[in-house]
Amino acid sequence: MIVNILKTLFWYLVGAAVLGIPAILLIGALFAPLDVESIINTYWFGDIFMDLDGVLAAGVDPIMATADFNYMFAWLNVNLLIITVIFSLGWSLGSYFLNINEPGKARVFGLPSIVVFVAFITVLIFVCFTVLDFSSSFTASQDITASSQISIIILSTIYYGLMYLISVILGTARQARPTLNRKNNVS
């Protein structure tokens, strides 16, 4: 039993690493000061998602506004990454205990997986709205246009949704489950 759980964890980690490592690199680049040379150029986040004309009209330094936006965007990604790991690891390990080890029992697997995925997407969208719209702890949330806010929510949901799906598909794959013992089946 423990060997099968360890197989599940191995394949889960392979799936989570596919999109998890780029997310961690992005978070590290966003937390770094703007004047640090990095592989990932974080200036374009401010150019794409911020209302720089509104920032300049308000008399705020665009460099400081971009740094505040990067800080907010980094914390948003940290929260989304934690939620993704919790949900996907929970489903990958929890599905092992559904005991899908007989032919025909896989149908039981469908509805709970859809419910967990919908709950996961709902939590992602709620966290995005909380950080980007209702947040009083990040002043950069006021520098984002409504269309940019929707774009960030959609792109974040797609990215972390794909990370969830890849890690869950690999974590619950056939190679991670015990094989069926056909000798003991009684007809």
Describe this structure in words.
The model has no long low-confidence stretch (mean pLDDT 82). Helix 4 runs antiparallel to helix 5. The protein has 187 residues and is mainly α. The chain has one domain. Helices cover 68% and strands 0% of the residues.
Q: Total number of helical segments?
A: 6
What is the strand tally?
Answer: 0
Global geometry = elongated
SSE order, one letter for each helix or strand: HHHHHH
What fraction strand? under 5%
Unreliable residue stretches? none
Radius of gyration: 21 Å
Separation, N- and C-terminal Cα atoms: 26 Å
Give the tally of structural domains: 1
Largest sheet, strands/sense/barrel:
none
Could you give a quick summary of the protein structure above?
This protein is mostly helical. The chain contains 6 helices and no strands.
Characteristic key phrases:
mainly alpha, 68% helix, single chain, 187 residues
Topology:
Layout: H1 2-31, H2 43-49, H3 52-57, H4 62-94, H5 107-132, H6 146-171
